[in-house]
Amino acid sequence: MVNVIGLGYIGLPTALMLAANGVEVVGTDINKEVISKLKEKHITFKEKGLEELFEKALDNKIIFDSEYQKTDMYIISVPTPYDRFSKKVDPTFVVKAFEEVMRVAQHEAIVVVESTISPGTIDKCLRPIVDKVGRQDIHLVHAPERIIPGNMIYELVNNNRTIGADDYGIGEKVKTLYSSFCQGEIVVTNIRTAEMTKVVENTYRAVNIAFANELMKICHHDKLDVYEIIRICNMHPRVNILQPGPGVGGHCISVDPWFLVGDYPSLAKVIDESMRTNDAMPAFVLHRIYDIMREKGMKDLSKVGLYGLTYKENVDDTRESPTLQLLESQEKHLGTPLKVYDPLINSDIVENQFHDFDVFLEQIDFIVIMVAHDEIIQKESKLAGKIVLDTRNVLKNLDVYHL
Ligand SMILES: NC(=O)c1ccc[n+]([C@@H]2O[C@H](COP(=O)([O-])OP(=O)(O)OC[C@H]3O[C@@H](n4cnc5c(N)ncnc54)[C@H](O)[C@@H]3O)[C@@H](O)[C@H]2O)c1
Known about the structure:
alpha/beta, five-stranded parallel sheet, 13 strands, globular, binds nicotinamide-adenine-dinucleotide
């Protein structure tokens, strides 16, 4: 039996996927609300294909429980934020979960950490616990997750995976478990390498996005079309530049590269600068809004609306979202909070939030597309007559402003 610890964006789909493919699974979370919702057969967040997977897992008798289970296989998928001051990983959640596991784990149990951690975290934070409680029989494994919200179910099945273990045989055992649903290639390596690869993958993307953002600013200065330039450059067989945008949010690209900056401050220079470039994008968008208002002779901020609160399109995850960062930055300037609408966020999480697209549109003259949800692409024609700043370059028919 596998006990999956932490049933959030990563743990829940993983637990369901294992169960749907015939593995006996108990999902555990410290949040009692999450457990009771799941027990009542309600899914806890929106994700394409998750409901169907939930049904299959329920048919295969997946169990949800707030207690850690006594078993021989654990998957830990709890959060790993970073300390905003030191920029280092905050391993508190992983450490706490691991300590709880140590209390109940069977002899020779395998404990897989799926949470993203900075290189060396297992050595620095988990091995000392093993020594302290005298559980040298426990096998530590790191199997970082790569799936992307919005396409999680497909990617769980099709992505390649990395498994880091001290012992090749244990790595192979964990590979067999993941092979119950994963059709991608599964590489077995050591723990330090697995830790590093996950952070490096996200850092590569962060640096590439920062490059695109910098190019955008250069092109903006010289009135060049950055999207056309990137499109043409990417026709080169060895060039692949990502797209500029209003900032990077979510739980990976905007967070993990800071782990390297925090651990290697004198070495990770390009990474540090790239992260600062990306983090400054919401404030850059705010400046663009003011510039466009000035150009249009528009003075009333209450007539400006932000479309999208999530950190990316077609998901309901708002963590580190550029829109939230923009609002925070605007608050510092003591302006009226801008109006906001997101079709995927039903609860009120900010001031001046709307839940009906048409009502939102009636109230504003200037709309800023912060997130490229399918809805806005389908409803582009409704924006006719409005001033539009399209930070995602997704509107194709209207005459709009870009970054
Ligand atoms: N969300 C993503 O897109 C993504 C992608 C790849 C990797 N990751 C990594 O996966 C890990 C999990 O991220 P997430 O997005 O699923 O987080 P999340 O916040 O959605 O879920 C974490 C869950 O863990 C629970 N939890 C916290 N401490 C616990 C404990 N001691 N015992 C049991 N449950 C506990 C929380 O209640 C929560 O439900 C992080 O390290 C993250 O960096 C996330």
